[in-house]
Amino acid sequence: MTAMMPTIDEVRAAAKRIAPHLHRTPLWSSASLSQISGYELWFKCENLQKTGSFKPRGAINRIATLDGDSAAGGIITISAGNHAQGVAYAAARLGVEAVVVMPESAVASKVAATRAYGAECVLHGDVHAAFEKLHELQQERGLTLVHPFDDAMLIAGHGTVGLEIDADGEGFDAVVCGIGGGGLIAGVATAMQALAPATRLFGVEPEGAATMSAALQAGKVVRLEHLDTIADGLAPPFAGELNLAIVQGAVELVVTVSDEEIGAAMALLLERCKLLVEPAGAAALAALLQGRIPVQPGARVAVVLSGGNVDLASLAEILPRR
After folding, report:
1. Per the structure, how many domains does the chain have?
2. What digits encode the pLDDT tens for the residues 247-259?
3. Per the domain annotation, does 3 fall within a domain?
4. Has 44 been annotated as catalytic?
5. Rounded to whole angstroms, how far apart are CA atoms 322 and 319?
6. Residues 103, 158: one domain?
7. Is 306 one of the catalytic residues?
8. Residue 250, class by beta-carbon neighbours within 10 Å (0-12 exposed, 13-18 middle, 19+ buried)?
C-alpha cells in the first residue's frame, strides 16, 4: 500500500483505464423520494454497474497499475462479497490470476458470483480469522495484495464515481455515501474537492459497524471486535488509514443508521424507483430520510447507491412488513 494521497489527475487517468470495461452508470432523479425527503434527490446508480456494485472501478485501476511481475504472480484480496466480485471480474478482464478470501458467513450468492468470474475462493472463519488467512496465503504463494479499501490506486478508481457525478449533475449542494472501509467516500471526496469544492460531503455507516466513526473519535484506526449489521458491504472490522486521513480532511460529518432504517430505505427505492439495492447501497438514503444529514430543505443532493447485490433469500426478512 502506498501512503500517498490520490490526486485528481490519477482519478482522471483511472477513468480512461476503466472505461473499456465498465458502464457509465446513470444519475437519476426521483420526484417521489424528493417529495418524501424534502430534498432534490439524485441517485448515482452503482447498483447497475458491472458485478452489481462500484467495486470493479477501483479493482481494475489497481490491477492495471501493478508492475508486470506482480500481475504475473497473481493477486489476493479479502471481501464479504462486492469487492470479491469486483476483483474477480477485474482480474478476468486483465488476465490475472486471483485468490479471494471470504469469511464463512459470506452470502452464498456473492461467493457463487465470485467463483463464476473465475477467482479462487477460500472461505475461512469470521472476518478477523479471514484477515489472518489472507496474510498466510499471501506469504505462502507470493501473491500481491489488492487491498479492499486502503490503497491510493484503488481509491482513485472509486473516485471516478465522483468524476461522473460532477460531470452529469450540474452542481450539487451535497453528496452522501455509505462507508465501509472508506474507499468509496475517499475516492468521491478526492474528485469533488478538486472539481466542486463547495459541495458538502457526508458519510453514513450502520450502527453495528461504525468503524470510521470510531476512528474519527479516536484520531486513529480502531479495530472493532464485534460487527452486527445487515449491511455486510459496510462491515469491515476497521477503516483504512489512508481513507481516514482523506475523510478527516474532506468529509464534513459521518452519521449512523439502524438496520431497520436501512430496510425502510431499501423498500422505498424498490417501490418508488424500481431500484433493487442491497443494504449497503441504501444506507446513504436512510440517513437523509431520517434527517441526519444537516442540509437545508430543498438542497440538491447526490446519493450514491453503491450496490445491488442483495441476497434474494433474505430480502423478505430485510424489507419491512406492511
Report:
1. 2
2. 999 999 999 999 9
3. no
4. no
5. 9
6. no
7. yes
8. middle
Residue 233 within any structural domain of the chain: yes
Rounded Cα distance, 40 and 33, in Å: 8
Residue 110 lies in a domain: yes
Please tell me whether residue 101 adopts helix, strand or coil conformation.
Answer: strand
8-state DSSP, 53: B
Same domain, 84 and 72: yes
Q: Which of 50, 55, 110, 133 is catalytic?
A: 55
What pTM does this model have? 0.95
- Kindly state whether residues 127 and 246 are assigned to the same domain: no
Q: What angle do CA 48, 272, 30 make, to 5 degrees?
A: 75
Indicate whether 115 and 231 sit together in one domain: no
Select which of 30, 79, 213, 306 is catalytic.
306
178 - beta bridge partners? 204
- At 117-153, the pLDDT tens digits run 999 999 999 888 998 999 999 999 999 999 999 999 9
C-alpha to C-alpha distance for 274 and 266, rounded to whole angstroms:
10
The CATH number of the domain holding residue 228 is 3.40.50.1100
Q: Is residue 293 part of a domain?
A: yes
